[in-house]
Amino acid sequence: MQLRIKTTGFTLTPSLEELARQKLLYPLERRISRETPADFPLDVELAKTTRHHEEGKVWKCEINLSLPHVQNTIFIEVIEESIEAAIDRAKDELERQVGEYKEKRASKFLRAARSLKDFSNVSRLARSAKGALRWFRRR
Fold first, then answer.
1. CA distance linking residue 120 with residue 6, whole number of Å
2. Between 67 and 89, where is the model more confident?
3. How sure is the predictor about 133, in pLDDT bands with cuts at 50, 70 and 90?
């Protein structure tokens, strides 16, 4: 997986890039590395939302991740008081949404496997064209 970082309103330091790599990329690679190709992009935008505010929730972390076999992309936007806190909250939200994605894929696979097993346990007479048509209409 490739980490692509875009910064807005400040310059990216090597320590901040390493923090994003450790907090966002490495845990994500452990969770879905088998399902994604090596050149798959993880787009992260780190931004300071205003130029004149020094305190308050002025740091933003956005993550875009388009997963395979899913039409919609995972989009996360977090605004916090520090860039480190924004990255931490975005990491938690990313792990939650990727977990939902994996659970959904696993449940679809199990559902298909169960229906295939049910179909294979049907007698030959029931598997005739007429019986199969009725079986597919029920599903």
1. 52
2. 89
3. low
Strand (E) or helix (H) holding 128: none
* CATH of region 2-138, choose from 3.60.40.10, 3.20.20.30, 3.40.1180.10, 3.30.160.100: 3.30.160.100
Describe the chain by its helix, strand, coil percentages, rounded to 5.
50, 20, 30
- Give the tens place of pLDDT for each residue, 41-74: 889 999 988 777 666 678 999 999 887 777 778 8
Contacts of 38 (CB under 8 A, 6+ apart): 1
Q: What's the mean pLDDT when you consider all of the chain?
A: 82
Residue 108 dihedral angles phi and psi, to the nearest 5°: -65, -40
Tokens of 1: 């997986």
Q: Where are the domains of the chain?
A: 2-138
Give CA 128 to chain center in angstroms. Answer: 42
Instruction: Give Cα 22 to chain centroid, integer Å.
Output: 17
Q: How many H helices and E strands in the chain?
A: 4, 4
